[in-house]
Amino acid sequence: MRSGIQHEYDYLSANVPLRATLEGRKLDAISTSAGRLYNLARETAGYERDFQAAGKSPADLKFFHDQITLLNHTTQELQDAALRRNLDRIGASFEVLAKTCNDCHTRLGVKMPEDDEEVKKEPARGRRK
Q1: What mean pLDDT do residues 88-97 have?
Q2: Quick check: 31 and 86 in contact, CB under 8 A?
Q3: What share of the chain is helix, strand, coil (3-state, %, to 5)?
Q4: What number of other Cβ atoms are within 10 A of residue 21's Cβ?
Q5: Domains and CATH numbers, the chain
Q6: What is the pLDDT of residues 72-86, one digit of tens each?
Q7: What ranges in 45-86 are assigned the alpha helix state H?
């Protein structure tokens, strides 16, 4: 499963922990990245068919659906927090986002990017090798 979600997540995970130094353009970039994640998360819902074909249980499919709903809400919250320049909300929203992603990857057996050789070869958006 590949999507642009990982690139946006990488960008956020590199910048959100630096909350004390966030201002202006960086906050706008975080808001934009969260907005992209929201759009990508909606597309990710289409992976449910792949999980059905792979024989995932109804409980796993419901879990996936619930995680997508949480991801949609969290990315909107993160975007709003960045627009309002609320550093505490940015941090809290990103923590929920990270947990949501990790829980889903762990439960559904989706490779994490550090396990995927193809992903290792791709530079993250906005970073140079």
Answers
A1: 93
A2: no
A3: 80, 0, 20
A4: 8
A5: 5-121 (1.20.120)
A6: 999 999 999 999 989
A7: 48-53, 58-83
